[in-house]
Amino acid sequence: STQDELKAQVGRAALAYVVPGQIVGVGTGSTVNKFIEALASMRDQIPGAVSSSLASTERLQALGIPVLDANEVESLAVYIDGADEIDGKGHMVKGGGAALTREKIVAALARQFVCIADASKQVEVLGRFPLPVEVIPMAAQRIARSFAALGGEATLRLKDGQPLVTDNGQHILDVRGLRITDPLGFESEVNQWPGVVTVGVFAHQRANVCLLASPAGVQTLLF
Ligand code: DER
Q: pLDDT, tens digit, for every residue of 158-168?
Protein backbone atom coordinates (compact mmCIF):
# COMPACT_ATOMS: atom_id res chain seq x y z
CA SER A 1 0.00 0.00 0.00
CA THR A 2 1.16 3.51 -0.64
CA GLN A 3 2.47 5.78 2.10
CA ASP A 4 -0.87 7.60 1.95
CA GLU A 5 -2.81 4.38 2.45
CA LEU A 6 -0.57 3.47 5.42
CA LYS A 7 -1.38 6.83 7.01
CA ALA A 8 -5.11 6.31 6.38
CA GLN A 9 -4.90 2.83 7.97
CA VAL A 10 -3.27 4.11 11.14
CA GLY A 11 -5.53 7.18 11.21
CA ARG A 12 -8.57 4.91 11.24
CA ALA A 13 -7.01 2.58 13.81
CA ALA A 14 -6.67 5.52 16.24
CA LEU A 15 -10.48 5.83 16.41
CA ALA A 16 -10.43 2.87 18.79
CA TYR A 17 -8.86 5.15 21.42
CA VAL A 18 -11.47 7.91 21.12
CA VAL A 19 -13.85 7.69 24.10
CA PRO A 20 -17.50 8.47 23.22
CA GLY A 21 -18.70 11.46 25.23
CA GLN A 22 -15.14 12.71 25.81
CA ILE A 23 -13.28 15.65 24.21
CA VAL A 24 -10.34 14.40 22.12
CA GLY A 25 -6.90 16.00 21.83
CA VAL A 26 -5.77 16.34 18.21
CA GLY A 27 -2.23 16.83 16.93
CA THR A 28 -0.85 18.11 13.63
CA GLY A 29 0.55 16.66 10.43
CA SER A 30 -0.30 14.54 7.41
CA THR A 31 -0.97 11.37 9.45
CA VAL A 32 -3.18 13.27 11.90
CA ASN A 33 -5.06 14.70 8.90
CA LYS A 34 -6.10 11.12 8.09
CA PHE A 35 -7.20 10.66 11.73
CA ILE A 36 -9.26 13.87 11.51
CA GLU A 37 -11.00 12.57 8.38
CA ALA A 38 -11.80 9.31 10.19
CA LEU A 39 -12.91 11.22 13.32
CA ALA A 40 -15.67 12.91 11.31
CA SER A 41 -17.57 9.59 11.47
CA MET A 42 -17.70 10.00 15.28
CA ARG A 43 -18.54 13.72 15.33
CA ASP A 44 -21.98 13.08 16.91
CA GLN A 45 -20.41 10.93 19.65
CA ILE A 46 -17.92 13.50 21.03
CA PRO A 47 -18.42 17.05 22.42
CA GLY A 48 -15.49 18.28 20.32
CA ALA A 49 -11.71 18.48 20.12
CA VAL A 50 -8.82 20.47 21.55
CA SER A 51 -6.50 21.31 18.66
CA SER A 52 -2.71 21.74 18.49
CA SER A 53 -2.53 24.09 15.49
CA LEU A 54 -4.51 26.54 13.35
CA ALA A 55 -4.10 24.03 10.50
CA SER A 56 -5.76 21.20 12.46
CA THR A 57 -8.43 23.60 13.75
CA GLU A 58 -9.41 24.48 10.20
CA ARG A 59 -9.65 20.81 9.20
CA LEU A 60 -11.69 19.87 12.29
CA GLN A 61 -14.13 22.76 11.83
CA ALA A 62 -14.50 22.01 8.11
CA LEU A 63 -15.72 18.53 9.11
CA GLY A 64 -18.21 19.87 11.67
CA ILE A 65 -16.15 18.95 14.75
CA PRO A 66 -16.31 21.72 17.39
CA VAL A 67 -12.88 22.98 18.50
CA LEU A 68 -12.72 23.87 22.20
CA ASP A 69 -10.26 26.09 24.09
CA ALA A 70 -7.58 24.18 26.01
CA ASN A 71 -8.40 26.33 29.05
CA GLU A 72 -11.94 24.88 29.05
CA VAL A 73 -10.72 21.38 29.93
CA GLU A 74 -9.17 19.93 33.07
CA SER A 75 -7.79 16.90 31.26
CA LEU A 76 -8.30 14.76 28.16
CA ALA A 77 -8.69 11.00 27.98
CA VAL A 78 -6.49 10.82 24.90
CA TYR A 79 -4.23 12.86 22.62
CA ILE A 80 -3.65 11.58 19.09
CA ASP A 81 -0.59 12.87 17.23
CA GLY A 82 2.15 11.89 14.81
CA ALA A 83 5.91 12.00 15.24
CA ASP A 84 9.02 12.60 13.17
CA GLU A 85 10.91 9.96 15.18
CA ILE A 86 9.96 7.56 18.00
CA ASP A 87 12.37 5.43 20.04
CA GLY A 88 11.90 2.16 21.95
CA LYS A 89 10.51 3.95 25.04
CA GLY A 90 7.99 6.20 23.29
CA HIS A 91 10.23 9.27 23.37
CA MET A 92 9.68 11.31 20.20
CA VAL A 93 11.14 14.02 18.06
CA LYS A 94 8.33 16.25 16.83
CA GLY A 95 7.94 19.62 15.16
CA GLY A 96 8.34 18.81 11.48
CA GLY A 97 4.99 20.57 11.05
CA ALA A 98 6.07 23.58 13.18
CA ALA A 99 3.31 22.91 15.75
CA LEU A 100 5.48 21.49 18.55
CA THR A 101 4.59 24.12 21.21
CA ARG A 102 0.83 23.67 21.14
CA GLU A 103 1.27 19.92 20.55
CA LYS A 104 3.22 19.64 23.81
CA ILE A 105 0.63 21.81 25.62
CA VAL A 106 -2.29 19.61 24.52
CA ALA A 107 -0.29 16.41 25.11
CA ALA A 108 0.29 17.57 28.70
CA LEU A 109 -3.49 17.74 29.22
CA ALA A 110 -4.01 14.13 28.14
CA ARG A 111 -3.95 11.01 30.28
CA GLN A 112 -2.87 8.92 27.28
CA PHE A 113 -0.73 9.91 24.27
CA VAL A 114 -1.38 7.71 21.23
CA CYS A 115 1.22 8.21 18.49
CA ILE A 116 0.23 7.31 14.93
CA ALA A 117 3.11 6.79 12.54
CA ASP A 118 4.52 4.68 9.76
CA ALA A 119 7.40 2.33 10.49
CA SER A 120 9.91 4.74 8.92
CA LYS A 121 9.65 6.90 12.08
CA GLN A 122 11.09 4.19 14.39
CA VAL A 123 14.69 4.84 15.52
CA GLU A 124 17.05 3.40 18.11
CA VAL A 125 18.41 6.80 19.10
CA LEU A 126 16.67 10.17 18.50
CA GLY A 127 18.46 12.80 16.43
CA ARG A 128 18.70 11.57 12.86
CA PHE A 129 15.74 13.86 11.99
CA PRO A 130 16.77 17.55 12.33
CA LEU A 131 15.53 18.54 15.80
CA PRO A 132 12.94 21.37 15.68
CA VAL A 133 13.23 24.01 18.42
CA GLU A 134 10.80 26.94 18.67
CA VAL A 135 12.68 30.07 19.78
CA ILE A 136 12.10 33.75 20.49
CA PRO A 137 13.72 35.34 17.40
CA MET A 138 16.21 37.56 19.28
CA ALA A 139 17.66 34.47 21.02
CA ALA A 140 18.15 32.38 17.88
CA GLN A 141 21.88 32.93 17.32
CA ARG A 142 22.86 32.39 20.95
CA ILE A 143 20.81 29.18 21.02
CA ALA A 144 22.43 28.08 17.74
CA ARG A 145 25.86 28.58 19.36
CA SER A 146 24.77 26.52 22.38
CA PHE A 147 23.77 23.68 20.05
CA ALA A 148 27.08 23.99 18.20
CA ALA A 149 28.82 23.37 21.54
CA LEU A 150 26.90 20.06 21.63
CA GLY A 151 27.91 19.16 18.07
CA GLY A 152 24.64 20.30 16.51
CA GLU A 153 24.25 22.57 13.48
CA ALA A 154 21.19 24.84 13.82
CA THR A 155 19.54 26.52 10.85
CA LEU A 156 16.60 28.92 10.84
CA ARG A 157 13.56 27.32 9.17
CA LEU A 158 12.51 29.38 6.16
CA LYS A 159 9.21 29.58 4.32
CA ASP A 160 9.19 31.33 0.93
CA GLY A 161 12.66 32.66 1.69
CA GLN A 162 11.66 34.29 4.97
CA PRO A 163 11.93 32.90 8.53
CA LEU A 164 8.88 30.70 9.16
CA VAL A 165 6.61 32.32 11.80
CA THR A 166 4.76 29.81 14.02
CA ASP A 167 1.15 30.04 15.27
CA ASN A 168 2.71 31.67 18.34
CA GLY A 169 4.64 34.29 16.33
CA GLN A 170 8.06 32.73 16.99
CA HIS A 171 10.79 31.17 14.82
CA ILE A 172 12.04 27.59 14.45
CA LEU A 173 15.59 26.28 14.42
CA ASP A 174 16.25 22.84 12.94
CA VAL A 175 19.30 21.21 14.52
CA ARG A 176 21.25 18.58 12.58
CA GLY A 177 23.97 16.25 13.82
CA LEU A 178 22.66 15.53 17.32
CA ARG A 179 22.60 12.08 18.90
CA ILE A 180 20.11 12.32 21.80
CA THR A 181 21.00 9.37 24.03
CA ASP A 182 19.26 10.83 27.12
CA PRO A 183 15.99 12.36 25.85
CA LEU A 184 14.66 13.29 29.33
CA GLY A 185 17.89 15.00 30.37
CA PHE A 186 18.32 16.70 27.00
CA GLU A 187 14.73 18.05 27.03
CA SER A 188 15.19 19.41 30.57
CA GLU A 189 18.55 21.00 29.70
CA VAL A 190 17.46 22.75 26.49
CA ASN A 191 14.08 23.80 27.94
CA GLN A 192 15.82 26.17 30.35
CA TRP A 193 18.05 27.95 27.81
CA PRO A 194 16.86 31.58 27.64
CA GLY A 195 14.68 32.12 24.56
CA VAL A 196 13.75 28.48 24.00
CA VAL A 197 9.96 28.28 23.72
CA THR A 198 9.76 24.52 23.09
CA VAL A 199 12.30 21.86 22.18
CA GLY A 200 10.96 19.15 19.86
CA VAL A 201 11.98 16.29 22.15
CA PHE A 202 8.82 14.75 23.67
CA ALA A 203 10.29 12.72 26.53
CA HIS A 204 8.37 14.16 29.51
CA GLN A 205 5.30 13.96 27.26
CA ARG A 206 6.21 10.63 25.70
CA ALA A 207 3.78 8.35 23.88
CA ASN A 208 2.08 5.57 25.87
CA VAL A 209 0.91 3.79 22.72
CA CYS A 210 2.21 3.83 19.15
CA LEU A 211 0.10 2.59 16.25
CA LEU A 212 2.70 1.77 13.64
CA ALA A 213 1.67 1.21 10.03
CA SER A 214 3.70 -1.03 7.78
CA PRO A 215 2.82 -3.00 4.64
CA ALA A 216 2.24 -5.97 7.02
CA GLY A 217 -0.54 -4.02 8.80
CA VAL A 218 -0.88 -1.88 11.93
CA GLN A 219 1.31 -2.83 14.91
CA THR A 220 0.37 -1.66 18.45
CA LEU A 221 3.38 -0.78 20.60
CA LEU A 222 2.87 -0.11 24.33
CA PHE A 223 5.43 1.90 26.35
O1 DER B 1 5.12 18.34 13.41
C2 DER B 1 4.75 17.35 14.05
O3 DER B 1 5.05 17.16 15.25
C4 DER B 1 4.00 16.27 13.33
O5 DER B 1 3.20 15.54 14.21
C6 DER B 1 5.04 15.38 12.68
O7 DER B 1 5.90 14.98 13.69
C8 DER B 1 4.46 14.18 11.99
O9 DER B 1 3.98 14.63 10.77
P10 DER B 1 3.62 13.59 9.62
O11 DER B 1 2.52 12.72 10.18
O12 DER B 1 3.14 14.49 8.51
O13 DER B 1 4.86 12.83 9.27
A: 999 999 999 99
